[in-house]
Structures are given as C-alpha cells and as structure tokens.
Design goal:
The chain has 192 residues and is an all-alpha fold. It has one domain (2-98, 109-191). It contains nine helices and no strands. Helix 8 (147-158) packs across helix 9. The longest helix is centred in the middle third of the chain and has 27 residues, at 109-135.
Length: 192
C-alpha cells in the first residue's frame, strides 16, 4: 500500500483485498494482547510491549527500505547489499559504543557456527528479497514478506519445540492462501 501511496504504483482490488487479509492473518499469528487478551496457554511466551514496539518500528523501517529499493531497480543487488552491510557495521558500532558500552563474545564453536549461519542466511535472504522488490510492485512483494512470520513460527515449533497457538495456525493459513492467490494471479496475468 505504501508503494501505491509513495511510488504511485497501481494495485488491483484483488491484490489489495489479499494484502489486507494477509495483514489480518499476520495479526492472528502475532496475537497482540489488546486484541486477543492476556489469559491463554501461550501468554507466557508472548512478546512484551518492548518486543512488539521494536517489531513495529522495524517493520516501519523496512517499509522505507522497500520503497528505496524499488527506486533502485537498475542497480545491481550486490551493490545494495554491500552498502546495507557497511551501514549496519557503522550503526552497530555506534550503538555498541554509545549505548551498550560492553560486548562479550562466546568462544564456543556452537556460537560461531550460529553467527556464521545467521550471516549466511541473512545475506541470501536479503539478496533475494532485494531482487524481488526490484522486480515486483512493493505492495505485492511485501505481502510475500508476511511468509517470514509463518516460517518463524513453524521453525519455533519444529526446532525449539514451542507450543503453537491455534490462532497462529489460522493466521498462517490466511497468509499462505493470500500469497498463493497473488502468485497464481501473477502467473495467469503473465501467460495471458
């Protein structure tokens, strides 16, 4: 929707409805306490207001990144990733120096494996995401981004053994359905 607002990209009614429905699915997965209450089996593992606010600020920041990437259609993906990485190093260094002021690093191989794995998958994910936003309208590409939430809660369950709330399953189903609907429409429009 920000793509339509800021970049004047047209969004068809079906894509708009799918985007709104996918956002509704996202709300079901995240389950903010002010909508779903605080008294349920998974309440102890729900995020604090700081986590929720951090997530919202992160999402708002990502909106601007997506809009800027759409403007950089002709630029090589790896040039964008390069400057993204440099910016992260600079801002993280300032953050550590000014606010955190200490940093402890574990020396275990498991820790370093996790660090390198995180770096590798972040690089791959950001590369594909950046290319996707260069090729597709911002509104449609951002709906696909909701799939992140679906994968996170699946991995939380499979790898970390966390309990899945039934609302998360409903939300994941809505998100996946909307993403598939948008993808199928794009395929049909391309072949027509």
């Amino acid at each position: 929707m920000q793509g339509a607002l800021f970049l004047h990209e047209k969004i068809d009614p079906i894509s708009l409805i799918s985007a709104l429905a996918a956002f509704g699915g996202l709300v079901c997965v995240v389950r903010p306490g002010f909508l779903f209450g605080y008294d349920h089996p998974t309440a102890s593992t729900d995020g604090s207001w700081i986590a929720v606010c951090s997530g919202l600020l992160g999402a708002l920041s990502q909106v601007f990144v997506f809009l800027i990437v759409r403007q950089l259609k002709g630029l090589n993906v790896f040039v964008i990733i390069h400057y993204f990485t440099i910016s992260n190093v600079v801002f993280a260094s300032f953050w550590i120096a000014l606010f955190q002021q200490t940093m402890s690093v574990s020396s275990t191989s498991q820790f370093w494996g996790a660090v390198f794995g995180c770096g590798l998958f972040t690089f791959l994910g950001q590369s594909f995401l950046t290319r996707g936003f260069q090729l597709e309208k911002a509104g449609i590409a951002s709906v696909m981004r909701y799939l992140d939430v679906v994968f996170v809660f699946i991995w939380d369950s499979v790898i970390l053994g966390e309990h899945i709330n039934h609302w998360s399953v409903v939300g994941a189903f809505i998100i996946v359905t909307c993403a598939v609907l948008i993808a199928l429409r794009k395929i049909n429009m391309a072949t027509a």
